[in-house]
Amino acid sequence: MTTARFPFWPLAGYQFFYFAFIGIFSPYFPLYLDAVGWGAGSIAALMVVMQAARIVAPTLWSLWAGNRYARMRQVVRWAPLAAVSGFSLFYFSDDVQAALVAVGIVAFFWSGALPLFEALTLAHLGRAVRRYPLIRLWGSVGFIAAVVGVGAWLEIMPLSTVRDGIVLVLVLLTLSGWALPLPANPPARHVPHPANWRWWRIPAVRWFLLATCLMSVAHGALYTFFSLHLALIGYSKVAIGALWALGVVAEIGLFLILPRLTEHWGVAWPFVVTFAVAALRFLLIGWLAESPVWVGVAQLMHAVTFALYHGCAVQLINGWFGPRAPALGQALYSSLSFGLGGMIGSALAGVVWTHGGPGWTFTASSVAALAGLFAAWQSVRTATPFVRANAPME
User: Fold this and answer.
1) Distance (Å) of CA 258 to CA 9, 12, 133, 137, 389
2) pLDDT by residue (tens digit) across 99-110?
3) CATH number belonging to domain 10-182+199-389
4) In angstroms, rounded to a whole number, what is the distance separating the alpha carbons of residues 316 and 57?
């Protein structure tokens, strides 16, 4: 792997700490909230607020930045520090209303930075876009380091220290943003008028964005209740952390081979396959999690439902939007998928969990993945020959 053509380590470092935050927040913060007396409905509501901010923030920040790399980098540098100020409210109160405000502030700044960082990454890569997974895998390394390390830490330390870990990672993310240089190639000087670039009129793009939204709906139960589901069954915190880590180890392995895989198979049809695998995965988690073997198999499927899915999705959206509106393309993907889809998924998971329990909650996730399978197939079926064949070549 050569790194001479782009600043590999600054890009990889930002990925590492960005996803280390998720590695602490998603598995362990719901356990902390449960320990201080929050119910499943309140935990789901907090996740809904976080996802709601992720709908608005990426698009607002991308519209402000436009295609100006300097503005993108400003957000990448300062947004994590602003997130620290929001999260610090948890040191003063565990009240639900205050917590919802805190998470809203965190999500608005933290989630707004990622699509702009992705746009900067793709600008650095240029036509070497297939090497994107080799940078993204460091986010997976950060996630696994956080989930395993904090899981072991919490075996001997109180759950309240989860807050300290989150603040530390956000501070390190801030510092890593200052090491990121601007892309060598200047951005496009002119972005076409909306009349000349109406992405919403392209059926393949509409179906694609719907599919990504549904994939995040399907993952709502996983990111909100997976740890709690396992804890109720009787898994220890170390075991829960190990199962999260298993999924990310599989994810890293697939990211390593993804450039060759997409060179041979393209990115469109593998993108479709990920939805079928997701539907099976959530059924296994919902009904067979008592078996460490089956829940382990389900976690290995994370290689497909995230690494393959995300690697293909980023290249597809880059192929459609490209230099015309790089930040907008990534922001739409983030807002409509992780934001809107995540909000719906978390809300749906909270309702079904309360009235039907874990099994039916993850069954609902499986149904959402099957709906996404249809939308993804429609996207590929109506796409241009270019997108059906491949993503931009190096």
Assistant:
1) 19, 17, 7, 10, 16
2) 888 888 998 998
3) 1.20.1250.20
4) 22
